[in-house]
Amino acid sequence: MQWVAGQAHIGQREIINYRKGQYNAGTQNWKIRQDEQGRMYFANNEGLLVFDGINWQLYPLPNKTIVRSLEFGTDKKIYVGGQDELGYFSSGKAGALVFTSIKALIPAADKNFSDIWDIVNFQNSVFYRSHFKIFRYSAGKITVYHSNSSWLFFGNHLGNLIAQDEKSGLLILKNGKWQTFIEQNRLPKDFYITSIIKYSKDTSLVTTSKNGVFLLYGNQLKPWPLTGIKVDNNQVFSSALALDKSNFLIGTYSNGIYLVDRSGNVVENISQKEGLQNGNVRSNFVDSNHNLWLGLDNGIDYIAYNNAVKHINPPIFKDGGGYAVNEFEGNLYFSLSNGIYRLPVSNSGDLSSSAENISTVTQGQSWHLGVIDNCLLAGNDNGVFQIRNNQPVTIDPSYGFWIFRSLADKSGTKLIAAGNYYGVELFEYKNGTFISKGNLGNYKESARFLEIDKDNSIWTSHPYRGVYKLTLGTSDNVKLYTKAQGLPSTLNNFVFKIKGTVVVATEKGVFEYNKKADKFEMSKRFAADFGNRNLRYLKEDPFGNIWFVEGKNVGVVDYSTSRHEIIYFPELNNRILSGFENIYTKNDSNVFVGGENGFYHINFAKYKANIQPIKVYIRKVKAISTTDSLLFGGYIDNSSDQKNAKKSTLALSFLWNSLHFEFSSPVFEAQSTVEYSYLLEGYDKGWSEWSKKAEKDYTNLSWGKYIFKVKARNLQNNTSSISSYAFYINPPWYQTIWAYTFYLLIFAGSLYYFYKLQEKRHIRNHEKELLLQRQKNEEEQRQMAYLHQLELEISEKEVIKLKNEKLETEIEYKNSELASAAMNIVQKKEFLIKVKEELQTLIKSGKESIQTFEIKRIARLLTEDKKINEEWEQFSIHFNKVHGDFLNKIKERYPAINQQELKLSAYLIMNLSSKEIAQLMCISVRGVEISRYRLRKKLHIPTETNLFEFLFEIQREGISQ
Question: Which of 214, 609, 678, 794 could staple 710 via S-S, CB 3.0–4.6 A?
Fold first, then answer.
């Protein structure tokens, strides 16, 4: 895209050139239309071309033929045609623009035809004009109208369809039949209509290829020659349209376009020299914002016809930077980097439409223009001048002067404070002469910014040193204010006067001087409007509005509303004269802003009127996976199916849980200032930050319902309504209702299976128990029967024998339990020893009443009872039964082991303490430890192995066998 300027009056319209290489389609563009969402459509050599402000998209016909015309039907479908092809584009199921051919409805004999040159939507019918046939598509049927020779033109004349036949002249369609409207012999020679538009309620404006422009009233053609500038009325006029009630636009094949008023006077000619890519205009169109689109022989051009911002940079300015503008005595003066120029003005309307009648006043770098005491003063690089009778009169040529402000000294003498390169010089205007009073005090800094407060103090600022206060009539009259005196920084402070108060524009908002505290503070009065904006310039206009420059952006606080609305001008971003910002307001129709080249004119009243809510729409939604799938193509027509589809929620497989969204706002002249904010309900916690990025990706979304929302805004804080797209991501197969049903069935089945398994096991165990019980009962019954039989058949002796065997079996079982009570041996042994000791004590006492031989007999019996061997044999039998034949096992494994060591091993297995073992073995505790040591050696047990664990392992082996 290339921006160029089209010069007509002093105000230049912005022209955007879209070249073939940019929109990637054919060179020629034959027809232009716009849809309700703001997208632009072009009938292009290679197909239907669509532009949404960001992206271009080409839709070729199936047979790839040229699309020379297009039209929207009442059903909002886009009707197009090509050679041997008729049809329309409409929204498909996924919102993509798809072509539907209606060629099959044409009778077989008429299916071959040439290019479609005109398409007209008329009374629920769509008409297609080819060279020899006109097709009428209505109610799903096609009617064919053949020409007498060839059809040259087809269009709408005041609600009637007319067509030009090469031999029959102009025809009008009445009741489905063509009737003569103007005979061929009444038409000029080589008469060939190219367009027809409404001129008034009973007249149409007609353009032709060779005969000029006509007015068609009734069935009378009247020439309507273009005047005002030199115009060839016999050139090819290709197209026409009405701009408003008073002006028309007429396209040509060689000279661009003409802006013509109702009298035929050419107001403006915009051609290649004014910025068009070429002068061959094939089609033109006025969009919803009343700006112009031109379909060219090679390319597409956009003209900001209705824009309230225009560039003033006539050739005489020589691209000089714009420093100041002021009006004086019916003239508008422009101060630029290369001189001062004058433009006579005779009205207070939009001065950008003034004729280019500019003359040079003086040359050289000029900084400022100020009107003081009915005198126009100019600050120049070579001094200060008064412009008198449009001529510069030198006042002081000593050095360069920046600015002028009026004030009065203590005696009331009117003075002029002039900021210059080396301080502030005072002038007295007396009897038409400016008398220098010299520079003020000791102030020697450059004074480019200067204002006078209500106390007649002079305030000036230096961008790199701070703010200075200069007081008249004192010896020490200069004081510097920096960050230490309340300013947010010593740098970038600029003094201005707004609302009668001297303020400082800073990097942190607007600051005011507190006289009582003798320091600067943030202005409470302006804090609500400016906050902590980085301001470089402030200017109050005659209506009380405050114009400002923030960074490199121009804005205004509009005080005409109670809420003090801030309006920005994105058209001027990075185009103003940075560092030397200046704004001059004549009235609400004429605001001049200094630019890098010339000036910019703002019709503020029109600019506010043009501010309308912008639109935004979702142009594409794709599901991203191994391959992308288009879910929504951005197009919705008015069919009931499409309306229902828009309201419905698309359900997606979980495999498509990553989505790509693209969105656009059809703003064509300041697209770079459009910002977007988006929100995915169900995922995002809030709206995103504003960004110029027009796309968004979401990946690995969880299953659930989502609504993607997007809104747009521009620098005028003009926010669009919200566009949304709803979708639902199905859960993965393992989280679906069918999966959960399956899981429930599996769980229920498992429970049932385990229940049945337990039931079978219970029944089996119960049956087993019953079987055992039955067997036991049967056995008992057999035994009882057998016993009973024995009692009957055999002698009592045999019965007793059987009973004894049973008793022996029970005794043997009971004896096996005696082994677990081994500690009884300890108690018995203790008792026997104690008895023995008592008896020995009695023997030793020598009492006569006790028979000695009896006592000795008892002692012998007790001694005999002490025979451990007999007792040990009985113990060992019981011990082996309980402990898996341990003693036999260890004796077999270690034949060298003696009886005492076997006893020690048995006691250790029984986990007796050393004290208890010592009592059983009738040895000391020390003796037990020695015995343990000898046992370890005999069993060859390593020192790191525990003796008890070793013995216990032998016992466990015996039990397991």
Answer: 678
